[in-house]
């Protein structure tokens, strides 16, 4: 039986609500016509979520966010809760992206709390893990991703763990055009699957300079279920092309 695939756009801090609407109009019909085996999500800036929620209502493209706070409400200026995201129909949310860990003080503990809060609201966390170039060169990739996965699972029951998506994103490959090799990513994702333990078929994605022309090679690897895509997701036609090639890779590996 062929695997199911998942492709999530990470728009980062790009696109106003007007841009997001124009994107959704171009993207959703094409995405809807792609294989029913793939889940496709747009993880947008918080300010775009209300407009996208409306625009994606009759589409199978899932609405995604990029961050949340773990408390349901309260005096937390500038934050948005998982419950608030859920009220807009958000179905998945990136947690622990390396940019948030590096620039905004995200820690393994805050990742674990956000993961619990999201799952409690029925939102699938896309937990990002990955090593720095120094860690990679020092042969520490396996221990780094294993400890990040264990930390994210810390507060979860066996049943909750099944709701996780993990994205392996080597930090040095993000936004640099220097993707990891598909074979090396496949091996590291194997370590991530081991760290996830007992989960029969967890969804694990690759992220870091995935493009239309390398998506097939990544997705043809048996451990890679799809991609978390930054710059190559910003153009709707380009992201569709990437997904199509990725699905060819999934089929080739099946
Ligand atoms: P990139 O970003 O595709 O632009 O490398 C991926 C990510 O940061 O999730």
What low-confidence regions span 5 or more consecutive residues with pLDDT below 50? none
Q: What string, H for helix and E for strand, traces the elements in order?
A: EHEHEHEHHEHHHEHEHEH
User: How many strands, which pairing sense, and closed or not: the largest β-sheet?
Assistant: 8 strands, parallel, barrel
Strand content: 15-25%
Helix count equals 11
What is the alpha-carbon Rg in Å? Answer: 17 Å
User: Could you say which overall geometry the principal axes of the C-alpha atoms support?
Assistant: globular
**Gap between N and C termini:** 7 Å
- Derived structural class: alpha/beta
Number of strands: 8
The unique ligands bound to this protein are: 2-phosphoglycolic acid
Mean pLDDT: 95
Give the spatial strand order of the biggest sheet: 1-2-3-4-5-6-7-8
Query: Approximately how much helix is present in the residues?
Result: 40-55%
Description:
With 254 residues, the protein is of the alpha/beta class. It has an eight-stranded parallel β-barrel, surrounded by five helices. It is globular and about 45 Å long. 2-phosphoglycolic acid binds next to strand 8.
């Amino acid at each position: 039986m062929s695997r199911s695939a998942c492709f999530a756009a990470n728009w980062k801090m790009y696109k106003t609500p007007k841009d997001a609407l124009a994107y959704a109009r171009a993207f959703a019909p094409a995405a809807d016509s792609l294989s029913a085996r793939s889940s496709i999500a747009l993880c947008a800036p918080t300010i775009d979520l209300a407009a996208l929620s409306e625009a994606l209502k009759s589409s199978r493209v899932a609405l995604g966010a990029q961050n949340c706070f773990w408390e349901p409400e309260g005096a937390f200026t500038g934050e948005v809760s998982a419950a608030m995201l859920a009220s807009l129909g958000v179905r998945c949310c990136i947690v622990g992206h390396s940019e948030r860990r590096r620039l905004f003080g995200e820690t393994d503990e805050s990742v674990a709390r956000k993961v619990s809060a999201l799952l409690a609201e029925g939102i699938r966390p896309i937990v990002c893990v990955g090593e720095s170039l120094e860690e990679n060169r020092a042969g520490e990739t396996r221990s780094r991703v294993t400890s990040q996965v264990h930390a994210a699972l810390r507060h979860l029951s066996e049943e909750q763990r099944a709701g996780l998506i993990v994205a392996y994103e080597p930090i040095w490959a993000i936004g640099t055009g220097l993707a990891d090799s598909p074979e090396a990513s496949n091996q590291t994702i194997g370590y991530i699957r081991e760290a996830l333990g007992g989960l029969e078929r967890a969804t694990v994605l690759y992220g870091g300079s995935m493009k239309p022309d390398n998506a097939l090679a990544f997705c043809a690897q048996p451990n890679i279920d799809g991609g978390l895509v930054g710059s190559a997701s910003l153009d709707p036609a380009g992201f569709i092309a990437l997904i199509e090639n990725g699905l060819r890779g999934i089929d080739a590996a099946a």
